[in-house]
Amino acid sequence: MPPRFSAAIAPTMPTEGDDSLPGSAGSDTLYGFGGNDTLFGGGGGNDVLHGGAGNDTLIGGPGNDLLDAGLGDDTLYGGGGRDIFDGGDGDDLIIGNIAYTNPGETDDGKRDTHYGGAGSDTIHAGPGNDLVYSGDQGDVVWDEGGSDVFYLGNGHDFFQAFGGAEDDTIFGEGGNDFIRDDGGDNVIRGGDGLDEIYGGTGRDDINGGAGHDKIFGAVGVDSLAGADGDDFIYGGNGDDILIGQGGRDHLYGDDGSDVLTGGPGGDFLVGGQGHDVLKGIGGDDSMDGGSGHDSIFGNAGNDIIRNGEAVFAGVGDDKVFVYDPGDIYGGTDDDTFFLDGGGHSTVQGNAGDDTFLLRVPGTSEVYGNNGDDYFDIREGGVAHLGGGDGDDTFLIRNAGDIDIYGGRGVDKFIAQNGRSWVAGNDGVDQFHFQGGDMTIAGLQPGEEVVRVYRPAESMTAYLDPDGGSVHFDFGDGNMLTLVGYADVDWATQQLFFV
């Protein structure tokens, strides 16, 4: 805090009682001493008013005045000019706007300096470009225009701005502060404590600081950060940047194309409307892109991801829900993918033992890549599945029209219902036919067999007219086809009835 202005000039007729001391047209110095005094700066000059002890009223003039309240619950009015207010001890009222004492007049826009001092003060910063130090006992501060700088101190403060598009800088410092700004491109730092901060209509830069903060961006392209603590951050309209940092944070982008970044804790991120980017960083995060074409990066942690059109799960055992068409990539660990939406999606599990649940018809390409992967096809439209490396399992419950390539490793194919075309490729694979319409290509005679869980006596075998496949019809729409066989007896020997 800069040093306060002081002056030492002989007093003008003060007493220890309740005095009313008017100034002259020049530069006056007035001392109230004891009692509840009223000091008027006069019609001109740069005045110095010292209230002393008691509940005093100090009224400046049109010059550059110093109003020093002293002890007691005092009221200070500035007037025109570049004024300095010092509330001193007590619960003071400091008004920098000349319109309070001279209705119809306007402030000249010069900077006033306000010191609240000790006590719970109420400060009205006028329309000039003011500097305000409110104190540490919990103050109420009103900003009535101008590009101001506010230091709210360590108390539980209330700050409200009215009107104007000027740019303010506000430091909440310590305490649980309530800060609501208006127009302009504002910089707000909540500091320590449990703060509640509302930006305005401009491009705001808000950091809640330490503590569990609530931050609201409103209209404009805002940058909103929580720092330490479990924070709630709401972007509002505009293309906003939301950063949770430490703690378990809740970030909501709302309207606009927003960028949401969590932190090392387990965060909750919701993009809302617009084309958003969500980044989990660390911790077990829950991320929902909302509507629009969203990109989601899980990074480290066991994350839950929804409504992403471009998803990169990252490190950790993640759960990814695919509702809309998109490109989905797993990470290095054991991920679970829920394909619950229609349209065309491409899903790649990458490393790890991944699980893929196809639950709604759609046109999808799903690749397990590395790891021992598990595919559960409960509902399927037109889909292409690839196991990749590893010992993969494909459970075909109710396929639409699906082709499956097992890849390297010992793969297992279990057909229960629906239509499927499967090829084991490398490795000695296992084929289980329980029902449906299953076609197997590339069966290795003598090494691989098809286990059939239907009565042999219900089977009718015949060679396909093209001469390259043998069909086994078990009735009721249950059909098994072996591709690459031209002899029915030889093909039948590849079946093992269970």
UniProtKB/TrEMBL annotation:
GO terms for cellular component: extracellular region. Keywords: Secreted. InterPro entries: Hemolysin-typ_Ca-bd_CS, Hemolysn_Ca-bd, RTX_toxin/Mannuronan_C5-epim, Serralysin-like_metalloprot_C. The keyword Glycosyltransferase does not apply. Residues 1-28 are annotated as: Disordered. SUPFAM superfamilies: beta-Roll. The keyword Secreted applies. It is found in: Secreted. Its main location: secreted. GO terms for molecular function: calcium ion binding. This is Calcium-binding protein. It comes from Pseudoroseicyclus tamaricis.
